[in-house]
Design a protein that fits this description.
Two copies of one chain form a homodimer. Chain A is mainly α. Chain A is about 70% helix and about 0% strand. Chain A has nine helices and no strands. In chain A, α7 runs antiparallel to α8. The longest helix of chain A is centred in the middle third of the chain and has 33 residues. At the A-B interface, α7, α8 and α9 of A face α7, α8 and α9 of B.
């Protein structure tokens, strides 16, 4: 455990850290499976791993959300940072950027297998876990930038379209969605997502 | 087996038929699970059930597609008939009618549970079955009414949006999609589906 290594440039929010980090990931997976996303806590995960909560935050500075992403298999994805980048560019092209951010995340090596893991968890009684994660980390953040009265419906519709594309591309492998370049999906699905976010409903 | 009963009014494509029909349904479930949708046949299902293929077609005149719908749990749904009704009204409002047809089918009593069964089958290695069924019975029929070069992508995008809404409504239960009236989803999702079918991509 080399805790004294470089603190400055950490583009992906997670330090390399051998055994302790792996113990924390295993503890997180157990905590989420047993307690669900809402009830799980960094403190509880630290307790399971037999480490101080500060050490958990040292390795995973994206907190609970990053730990869930990690437990599902993506050690380098911080959903808050991803969404902040998507939202930073303003409202006009946010639909395209959101589709792009989501697809580039899951198109990365191993992404297909990880998405299928999420699907299997969803279909086998852990749907509450995925729902709670979605609600607090993705939908809640998106909703925060929408002033309209229909904000809840808008973000839910966005989630439905993105979930559908991910299922079509990685699970059902519906052609040509399964093999088309990301750019084509950005061009076709982006405007639909944009309408859900800022258009007339 | 009262084969001499009324032949005229059969609004839902399936005759009532006691034990033999139930044997056929059980045989269909086994045939689909073992051979997949593409390789399964009415003849093979009849052989498993120990009946003549003509008897299978007598009870299930929607053929293989209806038998899959039946095996998944909807004994009264014939996807070909449903889609024919949706397409009969012409291209202008087909997006709304398609959303309505799909949602009314799965909103029927027991639909949520049946959709979760399909999801569980998809996530547990039977995705090819669902994919083949979708391709030949739903996407293929939709594609047939689209003249454009992008027809394959269009119907795949429609399938992705509809699948996403069904997952959000019945599996992830994302609010307000989970509890909003069907009419609200027709109004909001219908135009997105319409754009995928006939709009600029």
């Amino acid at each position: 455990m080399s805790e004294a290594t470089e603190r400055a440039p950490r583009p992906r929010g997670r330090r390399s850290g051998g055994g302790a980090a792996d113990d924390i990931v295993a503890a997180a997976a157990a905590e989420f499976a047993e307690r669900g996303y809402a009830a799980a806590s960094v403190r509880g995960i630290a307790r399971r791993a037999g480490v101080d909560p500060a050490l958990v935050r040292y390795y995973f500075d994206g907190g609970k959300a990053q730990l869930f992403a990690v437990a599902v298999g993506r050690r380098d994805v911080d959903p808050a940072a991803l969404l902040a980048g998507v939202l930073a560019g303003g409202p006009d092209d946010v639909g395209r950027r959101l589709v792009e951010g989501v697809l580039r995340t899951w198109d990365a090596p191993g992404g297909r297998e990880r998405f299928r893991m999420v699907m299997a968890a969803t279909a086998s009684g852990h749907d509450h876990l995925v729902r709670d994660f979605l609600a607090s980390e993705v939908l809640g953040r998106l909703r925060g930038v929408l002033p309209e009265a229909d904000a809840d419906l808008r973000v839910a519709l966005v989630a439905s379209q993105l979930a559908g594309v991910l299922v079509a591309r990685y699970v059902l492998e519906v052609e040509p969605i399964a093999s088309v370049p990301v750019e084509r999906l950005i061009d076709t699905v982006g405007p639909a997502v944009q309408r859900y976010l800022t258009g007339d409903l």
